[in-house]
Amino acid sequence: xxxxxxxxxxxxxxxxxxxxxxxxxxxxxxxxxxxxxxxxxxxxxxxxxxxxxxxxxxxxxxxxxxxxxxxxxxxxxxxxxxxxxxxxxxxxxxxxxxxxxxxxxxxxxxxxxxxxxxxx
Amino acid sequence: xxxxxxxxxxxxxxxxxxxxxxxxxxxxxxxxxxxxxxxxxxxxxxxxxxxxxxxxxxxxxxxxxxxxxxxxxxxxxxxxxxxxxxxxxxxxxxxxxxxxxxxxxxxxxxxxxxxxxxxxxxxxxxxxxxxxxxxxxxxxxxxxxxxxxxxxxxxxxxxxxxxxxxxxxxxxxxxxxxxxxxxxxxxxxxxxxx
Lengths: 120, 194
Hints:
The structure holds 2 protein chains of 2 kinds. Chain A is an all-alpha fold. Chain A is built from 4 helices and no strands. Chain B is an all-alpha fold. Chain B has 2 domains: 3-86, RNA polymerase sigma factor, region 2, helix turn helix motif (Rna Polymerase Sigma Factor, Chain: A, Orthogonal Bundle), CATH 1.10.1740; 97-193, Arc Repressor Mutant, subunit A, CATH 1.10.10. Chain B has 10 helices and no strands.
C-alpha cells in the first residue's frame, strides 16, 4: 500500500468520524419534560388571558353602573369621592381581597386542578 | 406526518404535534447545541429553549425552506445568543484555526490504543477545539447532511465561505491527526490488514 492509498484511507476514516455523533446523548426523558413545560406555559397563558378578559368585563360593568347611578340623577360626585378618600384603606382592602379571591379562583385554583389532572 | 401537516397542527397549538416535532428534530438541535456551545451542562436547557422558540414562532414559517433548515436556523441563532450572553467565545474574529491548542497530553489516553474508535474520539476532540464557525459548518454538513445551500440558509454565511470553512476544517483535522500521531499511517496500514 503506497502513501497515496494510506492518505485516502486516513481521509476515509476522518470522513467516517465526522459522521459520528458526539458521545453525549440526549436524555430519554427530554421530550416528556419539554412537552410538560410547554403545556404548563400554555396553561398559564390561557388562564391569565381568561382572567384579563373577565377582569376587564367586571371593571367595565362597574364603570357603566357608576356612570348610570351618578350622572342621570345629576348627583354631585364630590361627597362620594370624599367618602372614598376618607375610607380609602377600607376601600382598597376590599378591592385587594376581591382581586385576590378572583385571581385565586380563576387562575391559581384552575391551574392547580389542571396540574393534578382533575376536570373543572 | 409530513412537515406541512406538522406545521399546521403546531399552528393550532396541538401539543401532540409538538411532541412529534421534538422527537423528529431533537438530534439535530442537540448536536448543534453541543458542538456550537461545547458545553454539555446547559445543553439540555438550551435545547428546550430552542424548541419552545420554534413553537412560538411557527406562525412565521412560510414553507419556502425545509422545516429542518428553519429549525436549524433558530437553533443557530439561539446558540449564538447564548454564547454572546455568556461571553464564552469571541464570535467575530479571533478563533484562528492555526491556534488550535490540542497538546499530546490532552489526548494521551486516546493515543495509547489507536483503533478506529480512538480515531473518532480524536477527531471529535479536534473539532471541539476549532473556532465556532468551523465546528458549526462541519457538524451541519457531515453529521446532519445539510447541503451548502441549506447551511447558507441556516447560518447566513455565503456558500463560498461555507465551502472554504469545510475544506480548511478537514485539512486541519488531517494535519492535527498526523501531528499528534506521527505514525498514524503505519497504524492504519496495520488496521487495514486485520
